[in-house]
Design a protein that fits this description.
Number of domains of chain A: 2
Strand order of the largest sheet of chain A: 3-4-5-6
Largest interface: A-B, 35 and 44 residues
Strand order of the largest sheet of chain B: 2-6-3-7-13-8-12
Radius of gyration of chain A: 32 Å
CATH superfamily of chain B: Zn-dependent exopeptidases
Largest sheet of chain B: 7 strands, mixed
Helix content of chain B: 25-40%
Structural class of chain B: alpha/beta
Shape of chain A: rod-shaped
Number of helices of chain B: 5
Oligomer: heterodimer
CATH architecture of chain B: 3-Layer(aba) Sandwich
Radius of gyration of chain B: 18 Å
Number of strands of chain B: 15
CATH topology of chain B: Aminopeptidase
Order of helices and strands of chain A: HEEHEEHHEE
Order of helices and strands of chain B: HEEEEEHEHEEEHEEEEEEH
Number of strands of chain A: 6
Helix content of chain A: 25-40%
Structural class of chain A: alpha+beta
Largest sheet of chain A: 4 strands, mixed
Number of helices of chain A: 4
Distance between the termini of chain B: 27 Å
Shape of chain B: globular
């Protein structure tokens, strides 16, 4: 026969267990409510975009071998390297559009990166301006039409567009998929350093070429 | 950059007449009319591309397959060589067949050939493209300079820029005297006959930049109307005939000018 005090202890333990379970369930519900209250249920805000700014693009024309100035309103990042990349990307997008004056097939992300470095010092002359290293996608270079005129215009319009919007860029070099490449599509020399702006017509002692 | 600097330090173009190795370049000499002192006037024809480097595909605007740039430039080089040889020129070609040639090998061939020319020289690099309209005449974008006996290999052409610009002007003048279907189409919707439209420009050109002679790169493109549609393909026989005859006339005028003004006006010596 079970002693009476043991029955009382079991009963008390049972009541306490039920009570504790009820408290735990209640605490869980309250914690869940607190989490829900802490969540921001508002719609996700759009990522911060750069404000649109006026940019100047130098757009090539195959028919006369010239470049025309075209003003465009573009969202340009504050960072100079990102800004340079956005400008060149937009220029190459224009070339890929139907009816382009300088048709070049477009590829997604044609410009992998643009690096801005201090321009190397000349012989006895201080460094002036910046050197932009434009890293083009291999798909873009491989799909570029072949020819002296079309390749030279692509290179020159990139250089001129960079200098028009970022005047501190005095020199431009090109990479393709992060590697040096002899020519863009068989003609335009990509091993050279291209001078921009006031330096047009000049040449660096290391054999750098110029934009005409 | 370090590569180009060290290469510049090692490689020099001997502009004063020293011999250079021809490497594996295939050199075609169609006529030698000079004695031990070398021919009086030399024309170097460089048919662009060749071998595994086919260049672009041209003549395909009408929906056909067209042909490789290397094939067209070689055909133009052969035709031009025949025309010039018939007029008494000494002609050197950088290639006579479908062979691989580096830009340096082409410049070596040109520099070796023109170094011994005592009466002047001209170097023509022949190209073809589907982009643009008419004929594009390019001179190296190097700044003028670099006089002296030894010239940096990659910028040897800088000593010849003024003469190369004059040669480009002579070629441009000769093209103005041609008549080809569609030549009058610029600015008009029709396909009237007229001179081959020409565009002059400057560009960084591997090979040409190392040549120690008055040098131009001449690129043949289809003739387009104002609506950018192709009126005359680069594969058109009449267009090609007009093109090579214009180049031959230009070289004849260039040679005549040199004989009038003296070899210093456009010869091989910087």
């Amino acid at each position: 026969m079970i002693p009476r005090y043991q029955k009382i202890v079991v009963l008390v333990l049972l009541v306490v267990s039920i009570g504790m379970a009820a408290v735990l369930v209640r605490l869980r519900e309250r914690a869940h409510d607190r989490l829900l209250k802490g969540e921001d249920l508002a719609p996700t805000t759009a990522p911060a975009v750069a404000p649109a700014e006026q940019a100047t693009l130098l757009v090539a024309n195959d028919m006369d071998g010239a470049m025309a100035t075209e003003a465009q309103s573009l969202p340009l990042p504050k960072d100079s390297e990102a800004r340079a990349r956005a400008l060149v990307e937009r220029l190459l997008e224009l070339y890929a559009e139907p009816g382009s004056t300088h048709p070049v097939p477009g590829v997604p992300r044609a410009v992998l990166q643009v690096f801005l470095l201090a321009a190397p010092e000349g012989k006895g002359a201080p460094s002036a301006g910046q050197l932009a290293v434009v890293d083009l996608a291999g798909g873009f270079a491989d799909g570029h039409p072949s020819g002296i005129l079309t390749e030279a215009l692509t290179v020159e319009s990139i250089c001129a567009t960079l200098h028009a919007n970022l005047p501190q860029i005095a020199e431009v070099r090109f990479l393709v998929d992060g590697q040096p490449r002899a020519t863009l599509a068989g003609h335009a020399d990509l091993t050279r350093t291209y001078l921009t702006g006031d330096a047009v017509g000049g040449s660096q002692p290391d054999g750098s070429a110029t934009t005409p | 950059m370090a590569w180009s600097l060290s290469r510049n330090a090692r490689l020099f173009a001997l502009a004063g007449g020293a011999a250079l190795s021809l490497g594996n370049a295939r050199l075609g000499l169609s006529q030698t009319n000079g004695g031990p002192a070398g021919p009086r006037f030399v024309v170097v024809l460089d048919a662009a591309h060749g071998g595994e480097d086919g260049g672009g595909q041209v003549g395909a605007s009408g929906g056909g397959t067209g042909e490789a740039e290397k094939t067209l430039t070689l055909a133009l080089s052969v035709r031009l060589r025949s025309l010039l040889t018939a007029r008494g020129f000494t002609v050197i070609t950088t290639r006579e067949g479908n062979v691989n040639l580096t830009a340096d090998a082409r410049a070596q061939t040109a520099n070796h050939a023109t170094a011994s020319a005592v009466g002047g020289s001209a170097c023509i690099s022949l190209h073809a493209s589907e982009a643009g309209t008419g004929v594009h005449i390019f001179v190296s974008s190097l700044a003028p300079g670099g006089t002296g006996r030894f010239l940096p290999w990659k910028t040897a052409q800088s000593a010849f820029i003024p003469r190369s610009l004059r040669l480009a002007g002579t070629v441009n003048s000769a093209l103005e005297h041609t008549t080809v279907a569609g030549g009058g189409a610029i600015g008009a919707a029709g396909a009237d006959s007229g001179p081959i439209p020409a565009t002059l420009g400057r560009a960084a050109l591997p090979g040409v930049d190392s040549m120690t002679c008055p040098a131009v790169a001449v690129e043949m493109a289809p003739i387009r109307g104002a609506d950018r549609r192709v009126v005359t393909e680069v594969t058109d026989p009449e267009y090609q005939t007009q093109f090579v005859e214009a180049l031959a006339s230009a070289l004849l005028a260039w040679k005549t000018d040199l004989e009038t003004d003296g070899p210093r006006a456009g010869g091989s010596q910087p």
